[in-house]
Amino acid sequence: MRLIPTLAALAIAAAPAAATLAPGAKAPDFTTRGAIAGKVFTVHLADQLKKGPVVLYFFPAAYTGGCNAEAHAFAEAIPDFQKAGATVIGMSADTVDTLATFSAEKCAGKFAVASAGPAVVKGYDVAFPKQIQGRSITSRTSYVIARDGRVTFVHDDMKPDEHVALTLAAVRKLNHS
How far are the Cα atoms of 23, 32, 154 from residue 118, in angstroms, in the given order? Predict the structure, then answer.
């Protein structure tokens, strides 16, 4: 089921988000199902961190205006994240089936999106206080997680505009510290 972008945008704009998983905190490990380029696979944070830092960005709901734009912006910047040694993973409370299609269509098959179940949503403190059309959604919160599993950067803003640039800058800073 796809959300109506205008209704979702109105509801998202109506309530502020607040992430409390602060820089320095240990990022909760998780294993979930996700997709890249439409292919479903298992996503385990600890495995991804073995490769280098991870940008874990939570988005409210696939196929809404802001989330489509954010996914496109991350897809365009994947070469820059790869050059900086980082893996990007998008997460939402959407079903794996929805995310499989979204990964191919809106993420251009360039990075994984994964389903955030209740434990992940709680662990990262990204539960949005309202439901959209009876569905739970997450706040729009981006985390940069260092290879040691510690959060080094958090950007919590329901507007998608700065998430890519700020997380990329944080990854680059992490590599120079």
Answer: 22, 11, 20
C-alpha 5/C-alpha 137 separation (Å) is: 14
CA-CA distance, 93 to 59, in Å (whole number)? Answer: 8
Fold topology of 5-175: Glutaredoxin (3.40.30)
| Closest alpha carbon to 151 in 167, 129, 163 | 167
Q: pTM score, two decimals?
A: 0.88
Query: How many Å from the N-terminal Cα to the C-terminal Cα in the chain?
Result: 44
Give me the phi and psi of 160, to 5 degrees please: -80, -10
C-alpha torsion 166→30→79→151, nearest 10: 30
Predicted confidence (pLDDT) per residue in 18-67, tens digit: 546 899 999 999 999 999 999 999 999 999 999 999 999 999 999 999 99
How many CB atoms within 10 Å of residue 124? 25
Owner of token pair 């999106």: 113
What tokens appear for 136 in the block? 């739970």
What is the separation of C-alpha 34 from the centre of its chain, rounded to a whole number of angstroms?
A: 12
